[in-house]
What we know:
By secondary structure, this protein is mainly β. It has helices at 2-12, 23-38, 134-137, 253-257; strands spanning 43-53, 59-69, 77-84, 92-96, 104-109, 114-117, 145-155, 158-167, 176-182, 188-194, 200-212, 216-226, 232-242. It has one domain: Lipoprotein localisation LolA/LolB/LppX (outer membrane lipoprotein receptor (LolB), chain A, Clam), CATH 2.50.20. The protein has four helices and 13 strands. A hairpin with a 7-residue loop joins strand 2 and strand 3 (77-84).
Amino acid sequence: MKNMMLIIVLLLSVSVDGFAQTAEEKGYAIQAEVNRRDNGFVDSMHEAYMTLRSAQGEESTRLFIVKTLEVESDGDKEIGVFQSPADVRGTAVLTHSHGLEPDDQWLYLPSLKRVKRISTVNKSGPFVGSEFAFEDIASWELEKYTYKYLRDEMLGENDTFVVENTPAYEYSGYTRQVEWIDKTIYQPRRIDFYDRKNELLKTLTFSDYELHIDRFWKAGKLVMTNHQNGKSTELLRKNYKFRNGFSDRDFSVDALRNIR
């Protein structure tokens, strides 16, 4: 499937007999190149420091460990386990991402010692009180959206493509997203999220990119700002490790139940 995607990208990237790409074809080609550059990492693990800020400036910080497994011909599998503070320690979220099919997500609550499946129609709910929704933490998959190239634009010092992403899957909390993609590294610099009323809801910014194993660019800092409630969530990602030898059983519901 991924080889077929690459062939489509190459076809869309070239104007044939003088016919220019449509905005939809160019948007798809740009995002397919983003997807191509992200493929092949096998698995990864990193620390994530999440700081929640209220509209009044009050802060609380959480630490969790994130493990990811790349899946051929499907979305990635990911598990995040909270380490601190004490009131959330042991809480874990397991995500099996898909394309147009609904993502599978489960939440483990240590206080109840049980696993709760997250409803397909409730993915727009906040992830552990943050400004990230459960929908936001699933892996981005090319088939999840339709695309439209809007323009080229300088974003600060970064030359970017601006692409509109429209969810192609059911039950999204967003009508559309507008994304600024760095032309040099083909990674996002900013995403604006529009709610079901097509009003600007949130903005996610990406910075502090680092190159890992000579191929994969990862943002070290993400900030999600909610324009409607004044809250924000900062996410710092540190100490990436790749190709750890993870397998499917490390991302099963049974594995989630056995977290300590």
